[in-house]
Amino acid sequence: EFVMMKSGARPGDLIAVTGPLGLGAAGTELLLSGTDTAGFEVAVEKSLKPIARVKEASRMARSGLVSSATDITDGLISELGELRDASGVGMRIHEVKLPVPPQVSEAASVLGVDPLELALYYGEDFELVFTAPPDAMEELSRIMKVHIIGEVIESPSIEMVDKHGDTYKLHVRGYEHLRP
Fold this sequence. Notes:
Layout: E1 14-17, H1 23-33, H2 41-48, H3 54-63, E2 68-71, H4 76-87, E3 90-94, H5 102-111, H6 115-122, E4 128-132, H7 134-143, E5 147-153, E6 158-161, E7 167-169
Parallel strand pairs: 3-6
Antiparallel strand pairs: 1-4, 1-5, 2-4, 3-5, 6-7
Helix pairs in contact: 1-2, 1-5, 1-6, 5-6
């Protein structure tokens, strides 16, 4: 039995996720829309048979290297909001570092939605999001797959640095399923 704490993130910690973002969302929305899912098998599989990252959570807990962590059930931004609130810090993520597979962009194009919406706000990926000091993150990357997506900041906001280098605040909200 292990416990993951949502509090404990400190400015200077890195933020990481355990796997791709947006695939579960893409699969679910394709299925709900009645769109032909040929070519989107990976997304559909992720939607219908999500796999919780129990092994990774256990490794993190045993390592003692993680400063805060939670699973992404309500969307990355919502979960970052919970880590922020529990720790009294802010979070900054970088669009170019987000592990959003090409299939998410392709599905978003078919559905007429923004792929970032699927990756950031939807939350059916069941990946973990966690923070750790840079040296600890380096050590963690040797025992499991980590995708570093940003860093913990002092200002209590959630910010995104877009692919052009512009920074803007993100609002914490749950995902609203798309309406046909």
